[in-house]
Design a protein that fits this description.
Structural class of chain A: mainly alpha
Helix content of chain A: over 70%
Helix content of chain B: over 70%
Number of strands of chain B: 0
CATH class of the largest domain in chain A: Mainly Alpha
Oligomer: heterodimer
Number of domains of chain B: 2
Number of helices of chain A: 10
Order of helices and strands of chain A: HHHHHHHHHH
CATH architecture of the largest domain in chain A: Orthogonal Bundle
CATH topology of the largest domain in chain A: Rna Polymerase Sigma Factor, Chain: A
Largest sheet of chain B: none
Radius of gyration of chain B: 28 Å
Number of helices of chain B: 9
Largest sheet of chain A: none
Distance between the termini of chain A: 80 Å
Order of helices and strands of chain B: HHHHHHHHH
Shape of chain B: rod-shaped
């Protein structure tokens, strides 16, 4: 049995791993997976909010990557290529689910009459008090249209720059910035709605409590 | 302005406006709160489970993307590299057998579970028993299962022996790995997992033989 010590695995650089993976080397496949799986999995998880689905999508993204690795010529960064694949896999899944938007524009600019982002800015009563509850944020992100969600997760959560997002999402840098702003505006509205609904429930509970004691 | 520069920095004019306009100041503060919450979310670790790579590797092998005989990577790959074909194929056969047995069992006698003489509670036993205790317990159960097998069902007996052989091989490999790396919790987990598979197989076979003997 041929065994490789962990030190040898660590020494295998990405470029060498890509070259060897193109020749079908199992160790190289594993090295590439170990190098990038955390980030890809985190991206999928934050996009879909479900571990089982995130695992499925991560596997699908890597499968597509390894099927196409022979065509990788190094014109772009390997990680960008992989994340573009991953985002496409996730968007395809989300679009299948919603049976809705099929293009970036359609996916990121919902009908304003149907609850899309309003152009007006919030009044003082809508302030988020300088902090955002994590559970509410995750709920709100899940309600974002796929395109907004991708840009927000890639930039604000995963830490990508707009030039990287432009490559991953196949759009302009300006478009990435604009979509991010719209995504945050929509998130703000959703978070405010959650806050209002919570306040309403508290008032009703208080009324119910005082009514019961009368 | 925010749409073009969603992350700032604000121009001098914009800063002056934000200072003097309550609505814009609140909007800017809310955007910052959302951005900060996103960054905090992104700083949390999201680790893909180990079985994801195993599943992916199996798929790559099935598609012929991994070259046969290539060097194995991590200790786990090296460990399974002893006999990847039997480990993976055996695992599949094993799961199919379990599924078929359970399906057959449920179709034949859906209410018989409570009347069975011996049902193992693996989840309850797992934290209490060490590996050697588990091994002894299972070997004793093994003899009882073979003694109780109806003579008229050679297919079940043969299938059980064959799959026990597969699981026993897996246990042997796992034990070797634990001996080599006693401080590795993953190695111990896999050993317990292998014992658990054996116990489930035996319990299922016992159930089946009890039903047939009635």
């Amino acid at each position: 049995m041929a065994r490789t010590r962990p030190t040898e695995v660590r020494e295998l650089g990405e470029a060498e791993a890509i070259r060897r993976a193109q020749q079908g080397d199992a160790e190289a496949f594993e090295r590439l997976y170990r190098l990038h799986s955390r980030r890809v999995y985190a991206l999928c998880l934050r996009m879909v909010g479900n571990t089982a689905e995130a695992e499925d999508l991560t596997q699908e993204a890597f499968l597509q990557l390894f099927r196409k690795i022979g065509t990788f010529r190094g014109e772009s960064a390997f990680s960008t290529w992989l994340h573009r694949l991953a985002v496409n896999v996730v968007l395809m899944r989300l679009r299948k689910k919603t049976l809705a938007e099929t293009s970036l524009d359609e996916a990121t600019e919902p009908d304003e009459d149907a609850g899309g982002p309003r152009k007006d800015i919030g009044g003082p009563d809508l302030r988020l008090s300088g902090s955002v509850d994590r559970v509410n944020l995750e709920r709100a992100v899940e309600q974002l249209p796929p395109g907004y969600r991708s840009v927000f997760v890639l930039h604000d959560v995963q830490g990508y720059e707009h030039n990287e997002i432009a490559v991953i999402m196949n759009c302009s840098i300006g478009n990435s910035k604009s979509q991010l702003h719209k995504a945050r505006m929509r998130l703000r509205e959703l978070l405010q709605e959650f806050e209002r609904s919570r306040a309403r429930e508290e008032r009703q509970a208080a009324k119910g409590g005082s009514g019961a004691s009368d | 302005m925010l749409e073009e520069q969603p992350d700032g920095p604000l121009s001098e004019a914009a800063s002056a406006h934000v200072e003097s306009c309550d609505d814009c100041r609140i909007l800017w503060s809310d955007m910052e709160a959302i951005r900060t919450a996103g960054m905090e979310w992104g700083s949390e670790e999201a680790e893909p489970p180990e079985y994801l790579w195993l599943s992916l590797r199996q798929q790559l092998q099935a598609e012929g993307l991994i070259r046969e005989g290539s060097v194995q990577g991590s200790w786990f790959s090296a460990w399974f590299g002893v006999a990847p074909r039997w480990a993976l194929a055996g695992g599949s056969v094993f799961l199919l057998l379990i599924a078929a047995m359970l399906a057959g069992y449920q179709m034949n006698e859906p209410n018989a579970a409570s009347a069975l003489p011996m049902r193992m509670s693996i989840a309850a036993a797992r934290p209490k028993l060490v590996a050697s205790d588990l091994g002894k317990t299972l070997d004793g159960d093994l003899q009882r299962v073979f003694d109780s097998l109806p003579e008229g069902n050679p297919v079940l007996a043969s299938s059980l022996r064959e799959n026990l052989g597969i699981v026993d091989n897996l246990i042997a490999v796992c034990e070797k790995s634990v001996l080599e790396q006693p401080d590795d919790p993953m190695a111990r987990d896999y050993l317990y997992g292998a014992y658990e598979q054996k116990a489930v197989l035996l319990a299922t076979a016992t159930d089946r033989s009890a039903l047939e003997g009635q």
